[in-house]
Amino acid sequence: MAEPQIPSRPALPTEPSPAIDELRAGTAQLPLRQPAADAFAGKVLLMSGGSRGIGLEIALAAARHGADIAIMAKTAEPDPRIPGTIHTAAEAIREAGGRVLPYVGDIRSDDDVKGFVEATIAEFGRIDMVVNNASAINLSPTPVLPLKRYDLMMDINSRGTFSLVQAALPHLAKSDNPHVLTLSPPVNLEPGWLGNFPAYSLSKFGMTILTLGWAHEFGGAVSANCLWPETTIATAAVANTQGLGGDEAIRHSRTPQIMADAAVAILASERGTVNGHTLVDADVLRSAGVEDLSGYGGEEPLNLDLFL
Known about the structure:
The relative contact order is 0.16. The mean pLDDT is 93. The chain is an alpha/beta fold and 308 residues long. The chain is built from eleven helices and seven strands. Pfam families: adh_short. This is NAD(P)-dependent dehydrogenase (Short-subunit alcohol dehydrogenase family).
């Protein structure tokens, strides 16, 4: 008997999702604003990843607003495939005026996460903001996705998010304005998204569901929100990930600075006033009074990001 044929994946959506557009429209009603120059003075931001790309830009933006930064990443030595190490990131943060703790570790290791939080408290004495930035991506279809790659996405994306917040939570509870910000998308269950990369979708939606759950579990005592880019972002991840378009996608992508500017606007909001939302960078900035986004680059037509 012949083996059954696996049908081809559905076509990727090419138009914005009406359900997501309706969700995004609510951002205009949130009390978001561009942060003051010293908005994070005396505050500490704890981040998974951060050696390059969006995470590094968020760390730099927070440092410019006065925050002390703790980052944990595996990349201690240069990799010819991707730019940057945790040490080059730390130097960039120092040049931006921030104090920084670079901690070499693996978000999948419970001991590393515990050690990272303990080292941050020893260095800075507090934690006010947690940014779940570390992420793994593989858009391979189910028949050919190696289980070790599946495990990698689940362990870094969903489990890593839970692990870092759980470890930092006793210290967040002592902050006068604690925040959790997770870089993950709105939960979009349209078949065109679920049917193209169900494993990656599960790992990223897990990050979102955890964060929205914390917004309710903590009752607003710790603000918990998600942030996702409206367009693809010009990073090494986009350039190197099969299925995202490579160099062509980079030309039609905005720079990571748009995510950084949106992130600091969210993190500067007062406790509980912006809580339990899946936000999109462009919407956050428009709500904060930024009308012209052309400075963030990208050739028209801009590439709409996954899940929107």
